Amino acid sequence: MPMKVKIVDWTEVERWSSSLSRSIVESGYAPDAIIAVARGGLVPARLLADMLSVKDVLSIRIEHWNETAKPEEKAVVKEPLRANLSGKKILIVDDIADTGESLMLAKENVSSCNPKEAKTAAFQFIGKTSRFKPDFIAEQLSEWIWYMYPWNYHEDVKNLIGRIKKPGDTEASIMEKFIAEYGARIPIDFKL
Ligand code: ADE
Question: Does the predicted model carry a pTM greater than 0.90?
Fold first, then answer.
């Protein structure tokens, strides 16, 4: 099996959001604003903003993984944050810290906007591969896995099918191959 994939469902997303929000509250950290690392951190950031009663939600767009499970050499800030954060306590949110590059870069960018304090949070943290450990995590992984989050189903399914598809394949044969290759079922309806 060249690559292991875990299909994430919304129930898990809710559980991780609650768990993160609980840890943040228990730590005594009360952010004034939340910065999502787009695109992966957009949904987690919005859920945390709701749970923590934070109205100020901004985003910074960073690209590292230009295609499913294929990282670029460097993370790049595609849309920097241009905000005055002086006096504010910030929470930077992403879905996963895999290499840790995106969160590190986001923290650098946020720090240049002069916040009072900046902390980071992610649903998942891959201990083996990440150079950066977020302040708050919901789950630490002991091996590298591709997490297929519900906000990425269509993009990931298209890319992962593209890598295994051969002439003559049918939807049924692709469903079987997908399980054999990635150890997971395709979570959406698709057409070849
Ligand atoms: N983005 C970067 N690394 C990832 C991973 N392992 N799973 C899902 N999304 C990611």
Answer: yes
pLDDT in tens, the chain (192 residues): 579 999 999 999 999 999 999 999 999 999 999 999 999 999 999 999 999 999 999 999 999 887 888 877 789 999 999 899 999 999 999 999 999 999 999 999 999 999 999 999 999 999 999 999 999 999 999 999 999 999 999 999 999 999 999 999 999 999 999 999 999 999 999 999
- Residue 41 CA, ligand 1 centroid: distance in Å: 11
- Residue whose CA is closest, atom 8 of ligand 1? 147
Contact 148, 184 (CB under 8 A): yes
Respond yes or no on whether the N-terminal peptide bond of residue 15 is cis (omega within 30° of 0). Answer: no
**Architecture field, domain 10-143:** 3-Layer(aba) Sandwich (3.40)
Domain assignments of the chain as residue spans, ordered by start: 10-143
- Closest-CA residue to 13 (of 45, 53, 56, 57): 45
Using CA positions, which residue lies closest to atom 3 of ligand 1? Answer: 98
